Request: fold
Amino acid sequence: MSTIGAAPGTRQPLAYLHEQLEELKAKGLYFRLRVLESEQKPVASFDGQEVINLSSNNYLGLTTHRALRRAALEATRRWGVGAGAVRTIAGTMKIHMELEEQIARFKNTEACVVFQSGFTANAGTVAAILGKDDLIISDELNHASIIDGCRLSKATIKVFKHRDLNDCERVCQETANWPGRKLLITDGVFSMEGDIAPLPQLCDLAEKHNCIMMVDDAHASGVLGRSGRGTVDHLGCHGRVDIQVGTLSKAIGAMGGYVCGSRELIEWLYHRGRPFLFSTSHPPSVAASCQAAFGLLDSPEGEKLIKKLWANTKFFKRRLKELGFSTGASETPITPIHVGEAAKAFEFSRRLFDAGLYAPAVGYPTVPEGKARLRAIVTATHKRAELERAAEILAEVGRSLGII
Reply:
């Protein structure tokens, strides 16, 4: 029977979503989006309340830096607010090519292509270079964008235990006679743990077993290596990683993702990278902001910001350890505060916010069940007094919930 002209409310094919949302509420896992009402700074206003901000990926404070603001405004005046087309039709502007050349030099690779986000850079690249006859060997805690790219490629996926070289070797040996192409893929810095991949040893395995080596350096860009060149530079692996992915949305302070590698890899992504092919290119203001950010990283000011980031990180981790919090194996500014039960982690985050501190809770499916946590991120622009006050608030609320 036709439903055209049916009375409103008689057909509700999405009614099941209400039940699922109510289930989230019953489990204490339901949340509402926090609305930022100020600049993205160490102390910011969310939902009308000023809080110490430990929730941002703005590692170096570049979202509000004067050089990036100036570059964005000048580019808007000169070229307008948008590119108006996808890259393969009329949307490749000179400023896009200049940015990609700048990133390639920075990363010490032949070429680079910029995507609309770090997520699409990962997902689009894996899906473009592999097919159903191929094999992917992936760390179990790799980012969701890697997981989605692996699935989209239709390749066979084999997962090895997190940072476990023996388990990775086992998978490589078991698939030694695989007839298709093989990709070994890892995050450089793991976004929920804050630890660093054993990249030199993974490169050894990739070379031994004839695998393409790919690293997602989203949380290492601007943080690790000379002037923030990432884990490849930090761990001395130049020339050993075939595909480097990074982001322009975290330490770089703007938006987007990029892929670096050989000229032929980038040319192939021009032809087969679906997000590149079917999405409008970045506004000129975004490209110009990113250019300014990379220029800043290679300057004395950039070096100073990275040093401050690490000084703040070490101070904050030391204070949390003194207070009795568990921060796991974190080696970077990403600082997980382990809670365990998801409902308790979300309640912890809510009470912290009420007390003047924003540190978001993370539960399943982002992390495994029973391993819920807060994820705190320290930046270069936090003042020592702000971090000390953040530690005090964490201690007060943590004790009230029996977390410490």
In short: The domain at 29-58+300-400 is CATH 3.90.1150.10 (Aspartate Aminotransferase, domain 1). The chain has 14 helices and 13 strands. The first strand starts at residue 43 and ends at 46.
